[in-house]
Amino acid sequence: MMRRPLTTLTPVAACGLLSLAAIALVSGQSAGSETARARGAGEAMRTLRLSMSPSPGDLALAQISFANARGAPLERRSLRVAVSGPFGEDYLAMAVLHVATKHGPAALVLLVNRPSPLLDPATVGLRISAQRSLGAPTVRRLANPFARHGGAPASSLCDLQRHGVLSASSLSVLGTRGRALADFGAASAVAQAYDAACGLPYASSFKQAVERSGAPGSPAPTPAEPVPPVPTPGPPVGKTPGEGCHPTAGRACPGAVTGAAPRAAAGAH
């Protein structure tokens, strides 16, 4: 009579063990899938190190193009920029071009080196992260366009398939760092920088904004006010003759006679 309960419990225990094994197997598959997805996400991005070194009061511009993008869009989730190291009072902006280039879809990276009393870095290091589906990037750059001579050859980054200046509406901003330039948004600043780098007309106020000091709260330079001329003093005035004043050269006495009395005209009576 005691064997039947034991034989009844044996299948139940076996079923329980099988259930636990099934749960463990499912959990293991789920954890493995999460790990695979995480590994895939990490492998989906490639990192590019980029350094830029504009002179104080000037700028540097880089073009990052993807010849093998095969229609993949350049957007915030597929292309990012970050500063690696000291930055100081500089200004950074990255924007995607909506104008075709000879080397596929591209983005422009602008770095402005503001003059500052601080110990700003001579070179700024950037970390560009791009999805692997975009293919290997190609970088073209130019520094200090304001110091270049008018007859200097155009940079290889000046390859936009268009005529005339670049407009802000042809750019989509992906990110910025630092205080914006006075009177210029990020897209407008990048467009003006491209025009300056490629020998195209650009606003004189843009150059002034780049050259302006980057010290916090520093006002724009104002022209010096003219100094009024100092009046030349006249001859000194002494006391009256009755008080002992003796007129001399360069010193007059009120009421004193400094010259001989005029002679009467001939024939006068």
Q: Widest sheet: strand order?
A: 7-2-5-4-8
Helices and strands, in order, run as HEEEEEEEEHH
Total number of helices: 3
Overall average residue pLDDT? 74
Question: What is the distance, rounded to the nearest whole angstrom, between the alpha carbons of the first and last residues?
Answer: 181 Å
Query: Stretches where pLDDT falls below 50 for ≥5 residues?
Result: 1-42, 219-227, 256-269
Description:
The protein is of the alpha+beta class. The protein has a domain at 45-211. Helix content is 23%, strand content 21%. The strands form two sheets. A five-stranded antiparallel β-sheet has the order 7-2-5-4-8. It has a three-stranded antiparallel β-sheet with strand order 1-6-3. The longest helix has 41 residues, at 3-43. It is elongated and about 105 Å long.
Task: Give the SSE layout.
Layout: H1 3-43, E1 45-52, E2 58-65, E3 79-83, E4 91-97, E5 106-113, E6 124-131, E7 138-143, E8 171-177, H2 186-197, H3 204-211
Antiparallel strand pairs: 1-6, 2-5, 2-7, 3-6, 4-5, 4-8
In short:
The protein is an alpha+beta fold and 269 residues long.
Provide tags for this entry.
269 residues, alpha+beta, three-stranded antiparallel sheet, 3 helices, elongated, disordered N terminus
